[in-house]
Amino acid sequence: MDKYGQTRKPVSEYAIRRRMAGIMIIAQIAAGCAASSPPASATPPLIVAHRGSSHSAPENTLPAYALAWKQNADAGECDIYMSRDGRIMVIHDGDTSRTAGAALKVKDTESARLRQLDAGRWKDAKYAGTQIPFLEEIIAGLPVGKRLFVEIKCGREALPALRDVIAASGKTPHPPLITLIGFELGTIVEAKAMMPALPAYWLRGTVMRSGNGKKIPQPHDPAWAVTAKSRGLDGLDVHYEGLTPEFAAAVKAAGLGLHAWTVDDAAEAQRLMRLGVDSITTNRPDFIREALGGRDARAPRTTTDNQPGHNQ
């Protein structure tokens, strides 16, 4: 009898089973939806523009960074080599043939000669006349609140000049606006020792194994976190394909920063956000920002590349 004095018919076992089955189906659907999209509580990572907004503008040039800021990237990433006369040049390759036409080795060429080259026409005629920039030009163009990841492509010989350029820029407040990254462990460790106020991250790629006629990415080694920690570094900046939950947990357990490159795929960016990465480097900052719900990492609340030289 219910509270109105009416007698209810007993519910059959069959009806109970049907109701329970419906509840289970709804729960499974909800779980599937949660697994396929970033959780609402996930902290959005920094969006780092790889060589500037290099999907649309010539990489490592002033127009590429200007576009990145327009597209609301949180940070830019650039590559550096030192010229023959000791200037820090922003360029990915050790020679200029791919992006500036003439085949000159950066380390053997005076900066004035390097500045005569056209580093924009290869991308689009509208960028004709774009120069290879000095690092100080990129730093000077940083808008308020934006950051710069500087990848040291050359050897330790460039570190004193790099330190002087950064010191002269005044871009070393707390927190610092410039981060140092590099593949060569000895060089990035020495850079950290020379510029202790700046974060320094060890870059690592994904190890590939051959199998069934194709390359198979291998999970990153959690021991990298131990090495980075023991050498006084602040984090790891790794290729996305080998980044597993186990590796992410090991890096976080070591108290290190975790950063990923170079991601132009929406689903992959969402996966990395769920893993808790601190930044995602991309050639398409506007696209990846939208893929992550348009959320700004500074607010409280096609892994493909149309350019050659895609490696970080």
Could you characterize the architecture of this molecule?
By secondary structure, the chain is α/β, with parallel strands linked by helices. It has one domain: Alpha-Beta Barrel (TIM Barrel), CATH 3.20.20. It is 33% helix and 17% strand. The protein has helices at 13-36, 62-70, 97-100, 111-114, 135-140, 159-169, 185-194, 223-230, 245-253, 266-275, 285-291, and strands at residues 46-50, 75-82, 88-90, 147-152, 178-182, 200-204, 208-211, 214-217, 235-239, 257-261, 279-282. An eight-stranded parallel barrel has the order 1-2-4-5-6-9-10-11, surrounded by six helices. Strands 7-8 form a two-stranded antiparallel sheet. β4 (147-152), α6 and β5 form a beta-alpha-beta unit. It is globular, with a radius of gyration of 24 Å. The protein starts with 12 loop residues before the first helix and ends in a 21-residue tail after the last helix. The model is unreliable at 1-41 and 297-310 (pLDDT under 50).
